[in-house]
Design goal:
globular; about 260 residues; 6 helices; mainly alpha
């Protein structure tokens, strides 16, 4: 609309330049890097905890002394609680960094389209918002495809670990959030355009459209997307558990005695 064109002209002529766009993109990449490092650290922590639990379980078979065992169990419980709190804080920070990455890239691209409209289409118009969402979706698809191929090669070569998988999941998750934000940006513009047709009940129409979308999409999301996501998470946990057991049960170098001559 006219407000969007005035906003674009004001920002592009008085405040924004290309340097601001690159700075915002760079900050977003930094946030994604922090999220990946936190995810890798969480993966290393989980590997150490699982190995420690496995070794402790094996060592309890020949251990005697109930009082000593109770004291050790109490200490282990306190350490697990502390590590759990730290891990939760790290997960919250990782999610926050992923969100910050998505917002920085979204608005960096928005500013870039304000400075240089693609095909003469203003980014504040519905056509511009959809074009920006399609552009970001295509770029994100290419990035996820490349990251997935690189992760597959690392797994085939044996260089991958749970920490690396966690980092890859965090990066892919952050990129996926960017795709969601870009289409939410388009939907928000569509709601404003539709509600603007009624000059007297703009806020009510925006609220009503949001409610209609939630009602229509909640049941399919819960029935298909959420259910399948939970199933895949359970399968992934079983695969990781079996992989850890196989790795811990792998025999070391043979120590067979040399035959005497």
């Amino acid at each position: 609309g006219e407000e969007g064109e005035e906003e674009g002209e004001y920002f592009s002529s008085n405040i924004l330049n290309q340097r601001h766009v690159f700075i915002l993109w760079f900050i977003g990449v930094l946030f994604m890097g922090v999220a990946g490092l936190l995810a890798r650290w969480l993966g290393i922590l989980e590997e150490k905890n699982e190995e420690a639990k496995h070794h402790d379980h094996e060592g309890q078979e020949g251990h005697e002394g109930h009082g000593h065992k109770a004291h050790e169990a109490h200490q282990e419980h306190e350490e697990e609680v502390e590590e759990s709190l730290v891990a939760r804080a790290a997960e919250v920070l990782m999610t926050t960094c992923a969100m910050c990455f998505a917002w920085c890239c979204l608005w960096g691209t928005h500013w870039a389209f304000l400075l240089r409209p693609m095909g003469g289409i203003q980014v504040e118009s519905m056509d511009g918002r959809i074009l920006m969402a399609l552009t970001l979706s295509g770029l994100c698809y290419l990035m996820i495809f490349g990251i997935d191929k690189a992760a597959d090669r690392m797994r085939e070569s044996g260089a991958a670990s749970k920490s690396v998988d966690k980092a890859v999941e965090a990066v892919v998750g952050a990129i996926s959030v960017l795709v969601g934000f870009s289409w939410e940006h388009s939907f928000d513009g569509a709601v404003k355009v539709v509600s603007a047709q009624s000059h007297s009940h703009v806020d009510f129409i925006e609220f009503a459209l949001g409610v209609v979308v939630v009602v229509l999409l909640f049941v399919p999301w819960r029935k298909y997307i959420l259910k399948r996501s939970m199933q895949l998470n359970d399968v992934q946990k079983m695969i990781e558990k079996n992989s850890l057991k196989n790795r811990l049960r792998r025999p070391g170098p043979s120590m067979s005695p040399t035959p005497s001559s």
